[in-house]
Specification:
225 residues; alpha/beta; Rossmann fold; seven-stranded mixed beta sheet; two-stranded antiparallel ribbon; 16% strand; globular; GAL3A protein; Class_I_gatase-like
């Protein structure tokens, strides 16, 4: 029997929800790994809505669960219904929705608050010693909830202009966590906490390299499950 994995989304679209390519890559690699996947998202209003064509704010309101349902092809549940006892692992794709809807990192940085259902989900899997996979900006969730853990968001310097958000690594360190520098096609495994992270679109890289990096994260999560 394949591993049972929960995938948590934050909306639909890089600037105000889950990054679509990251969510799709995770689902493809989970499918290839024989996992049984169920998708969840919090039933809350988005912090903001962005016109992805113009890159500017839109004067409308959207719901995170409703928007995430686009990526889930309608087969999705409220995050409040997720029971860690029913799964072997949980994975969080990235996208600005993680930093806006799942927590307030986009506004408050290291002083952010984490959504109550996101926090309880992370705590439940961690307490049960079940693996947690996070990519792109999502590792900040672990950094905030589990002081002392090890994560990667890529590099801690803007190497060759490929890591424009490298200051995130410093903020993670200020939270008392250890940032591990990794390339885009790699992931880092914090064996003590069973947390697996990869930088994905935190690096300016070809899509296939991001896809491969997410693949290493999924593979490591399934190994730990």
């Amino acid at each position: 029997m394949g591993k049972r994995v929960a995938l948590v989304l934050a909306g639909c679209g890089v600037f105000d929800g889950s990054e679509i390519h990251e969510a799709s890559a995770a689902l493809v690699h989970l499918s290839r790994g024989g996992a049984e996947v169920k998708i969840f998202a919090p039933n809350i209003e988005q912090r903001d809505v962005v016109n992805h064509l113009k890159g500017s704010p839109a004067e409308e309101k959207r719901n995170v669960l409703v928007e995430s349902a686009r990526l889930a092809r309608g087969n999705i549940q409220d995050l409040a219904e997720l029971k860690a006892s029913e799964f072997d692992a949980v994975i969080f794709p990235g996208g600005f929705g993680v930093a806006k809807n799942l927590c307030s990192w986009a506004v408050d940085g290291k002083n952010c608050t984490v959504n109550e259902h996101v926090n309880s989900t992370l705590q439940a899997f961690h307490s049960a010693k079940k693996p947690i996979g996070l990519c792109c900006i999502a590792p900040v969730l672990a950094a905030k909830v589990f002081p002392g853990c090890e994560v990667t968001v890529g590099q801690d310097k803007n190497v060759d202009g490929r890591f424009p958000d490298s200051e995130t690594a410093s903020a993670i360190a200020e939270l008392g966590c250890k940032h591990i520098c990794k390339n885009v096609n790699e992931s880092h495994v914090d064996k003590a906490n069973k947390i697996v992270t990869t930088c994905a679109f935190m690096c300016k890289a070809p899509l296939h390299e991001i896809f491969d990096g997410i693949g290493t994260m999924v593979q490591e999560v399934l190994k730990l499950a």
